[in-house]
Amino acid sequence: MKLRKSSVSYLSFMIMAVALLVARGDVAWAQETNPADKQESDGTAVDERFGIVEAFWRADDAAELGVGWDRILFYWNEIQPTGPDDWNTLHVLEEWLNDARAENRMVMGLLKNTPAWATDAEPYSGVPRGLYLPVDDPANLWAGYVRKVVEYYAPLGVHHWIVWNEPEIGVGVYGHEFSGSTRDYYQLLKVASQVAKQRDPEAVIHLAGWSYWHDPAWLGKFLSIATADPEGAANDYFFDIVTLHIYFRVETVEELVEETWAIQKRYGLNKPVWINETNASPNLDPLWPVERPNFQVDLEQQAWYIIQAHALGFGANATSIGIYKLLDILLPPGGESFGILRPDGSRRPAFDAYRTTIRYLEDFVFPVGRQQEEDFYAFSFRRPDSVTRILWARTSTDLILKVPALANEARLVSALGDYETTLKAYQGHYRIRLRGAHCAPACDIGGPPVFLVEQTAEELSVEQMVTIAPESAIMATATPTPSVEEATNVLPTVPRQIIPLPTFWPGPSATPTREPTSTPTASPSPSPTLEPSFTATPLALSFADDATAGMDQPVDEEKMLLEATPEGTVWLVERAGNLGSWLFLAAAVLLGGLLIMVAFRYRQSR
Q1: Which DSSP string do the residues of 485-518 spell out, in sequence order?
Q2: Radius of gyration over alpha carbons of the chain, in Å?
Q3: Which pLDDT score is estimated for 540?
Q4: CA atoms of 503 and 270, how far apart (whole Å)
Q5: Where do the domains of the chain lie?
Q6: How would DSSP label each residue in 427-472?
Q7: How many CB atoms lie within 10 A of CB 284?
Q8: CB 341, CB 62: distance < 8 Å
Q9: Cα(333)–Cα(330) distance, integer angstroms
Q10: What percent of the chain is modeled with pLDDT above 90?
Q11: Vertex 128, ends 124 and 130: CA angle to 5°?
């Protein structure tokens, strides 16, 4: 086969490039596999503390995530559209329930939407007729519906029932779903609980999801009614679980869970607290522009929110946390999209973030270690044979933390689970760089979190697992300058060398018209517009450890810096510091020059 000059020159260039890389030291570069891709699910071990709304639309994706529960809408107006004798089982397909059982995924049914025939008020939100009649009276239409639903679906594995949705949102307000009073809602719950537990001893009753911001006093008002009911105490107040819906501002996850515990305590209750809706809708997704967003959130921030919300929620003793939602169905162009899968089924980074969160937190035991400082958060999760710590910056400034080691080495894993490296403890610590948050100007979501995973069976206190000396944090700039002598072991003495890469996403396209959609209500005071910054910089993290990744002893100038690029390539850059390396480099250049000369002479001889 004859080679053209361009082919020979290209071959020469490639040989030179390889030689240059080898000449840089013992380690040049490596393509790392995505550890998240290795995760397999056999459907036998899931943790019910991790869930997602409407997993049934993409059961295979839900199984890959490893979620432990799904939430399905049981619309009364669809199941019994024209009267109490209707029974439309096509509204909730048995196939969905079969898929859930096959993966040991618990299903929660959400009961809501009064049909027109069953209320004297407006359809969907009206108080059911006969609600205050005895539960065995046929004229109590709500009791009749709940009875039939539970009798039919309990044998199919549905035992958890959420009674209505966000009843605190008032008439005339976007998202309004219940026209009755708080006392009417208590009666709605009481009837559903009495009927469900008569028909199914395994029934678990969840309060309607409370969005908080529409009426911060709602839970207190509800509990004052419940605890005043003479029949309440003997029946555990007719509910088992308090339910929260929390969106966008990630630190409110912790605040609202703690507030919920405090409200319960005032009334002498201690029910489990579930967050069964949380997320931050990414309006800055170039593949799905949103016309009228509540907040400005990019794809990275949505992914970071998922991880941070779980750390903050579990750190505040939330029992279970679920993401709203897996996939947006029939969403019009420009509509606010919450799915970790886009409406076309493609994956957002948040999908990988949630999969990674479950992978490194499942089977953890309470209590969760928590450390909050002005500049960073740190959480620790004890698992059967390991400890997972989650760290992130709270401000827009990068910082370097000196993290106490619990073992001789640890795995440092990025937010999406696609980049990881092994760190060796040096003098009992790891040094980890945390990237700053995207703030505009408020930092509603922290910077990219990292997972620090150590294998240890030692019994450690919460304080031992999480305490980081705040004074050891070094605030970093684009070109960090260590502020203390000890920090010279953190960063390399040569500039970073990052291979240029294509932009991660194209710029946003023109925004189509948004149609009204039923979406969760955000907390108030949206932030100013934040322009997306999808660049060739690392997608999730840049680590600088004790210069001990893959080395047992500290090294002075020959330090390695790991840069995780969006394409998944991990470049280990090392400064060449010996004569042999430079001689090899000279030989490589000479070899390349000879090959170019051969190509040139070959071209002249033709």
Answers
A1: GGGGGTS-SS---------SSPPP-PPPPPPP--
A2: 28
A3: 33
A4: 50
A5: 5-25+579-605, 42-364
A6: TTEEEEEEPPP--SSS-SS-S--EEEEEE--S---HHHHH---GGG
A7: 26
A8: no
A9: 9
A10: 66
A11: 165
Cα→Cα distances 519→114, 323, 555, Å: 19, 13, 54
Cβ(562)–Cβ(549) below 8 Å:
yes
Percent of residues in the chain assigned helix, strand, coil, to nearest 5: 30, 20, 45
The Cα 40–Cα 66 span in angstroms is 9
Quote the pLDDT of residue 30: 29
Residue whose pair of structure tokens reads 């290209």 in the numeric block: 10
Owner of token pair 């004859």: 2
Q: Which pLDDT belongs to residue 587?
A: 59
Nearest partner of 592 among 37, 3, 18, 208, judged by Cα: 18
Amino acid code (one letter) for 401: L
Reading the block at residue 8, the tokens are 């020979």
User: How many CA atoms within 13 Å lie on the side-chain side of 219?
Assistant: 27
CA distance 420 to 564: 9
Stretches where the chain sits below pLDDT 50 are 1-42, 478-582, 584, 602, 606
- The fold of the 42-364 domain, in CATH, is TIM Barrel (3.20.20)
Which residue is it, tokens 């395994």? 202
- Rounded-to-integer distance, Cα 523 and Cα 526, Å: 8
Distance (Å, whole) CA 303 – CA 449: 9
Residues in the chain: 606
pLDDT tens digits for range 186-221: 999 999 999 999 999 999 999 999 999 999 999 999
